[in-house]
Hints:
Chain A has 115 residues and is mostly beta strands. Helix content of chain A is 0%, strand content 51%. The N and C termini of chain A lie far apart (36 Å). Chain B has no helices and eleven strands. The radius of gyration of chain B is 13 Å and the shape is globular.
Amino acid sequence: GAVVSQHPSRVICKSGTSVKIECRSLDFQATTMFWYRQFPKQSLMLMATSNEGSKATYEQGVEKDKFLINHASLTLSTLTVTSAHPEDSSFYICSVQSREADEQFFGPGTRLTVL
Amino acid sequence: GQNIDQPTEMTATEGAIVQINCTYQTSGFNGLFWYQQHAGEAPTFLSYNVLDGLEEKGRFSSFLSRSKGYSYLLLKELQMKDSASYLCAVLDSNYQLIWGAGTKLIIKP
């Protein structure tokens, strides 16, 4: 399967600051990348789907101006949480998918804590 | 609406066999995934079923019945490291993953 990395793995920031999370597909051409968030003891919640070279599609209830997603290449997508607040504290997980396969490969996740 | 149901929690004994069930109602079906997730980590892929039947992969097997909207994950020769949450997810007609809430599996010695 594909190797997916996320950076940073853990971040703590002050309320009001912006945080950028990178998702890299190390050995896989990811035509589609997904961003999820997960709260404790809950399943993953899809935030947005991004296709390389086009604007991301956001799920209902997810503010696109707050969670900026850029999918500039087939191996990199970034999620920027702007003006982060404590309620944004969560585990953010990306996954990648190729055009040929339905299978998704998940990144290790980024734990965001907003103080 | 779309719905995935799986038990919240199960307990089993080391060395035994356990079956985790998953039923689904989704708009379209393009396959069903099982993931394992240890606390604080992202889910890792276990299996993918798109045709009816049993898929065996080592100690883990996954079964699918599309007509019944039903799948199960079978874990044999349980080990302590199998203690984790097991997520069932369906790929719907829009190729979006619909996730179950996960089944927490507790393995006792």
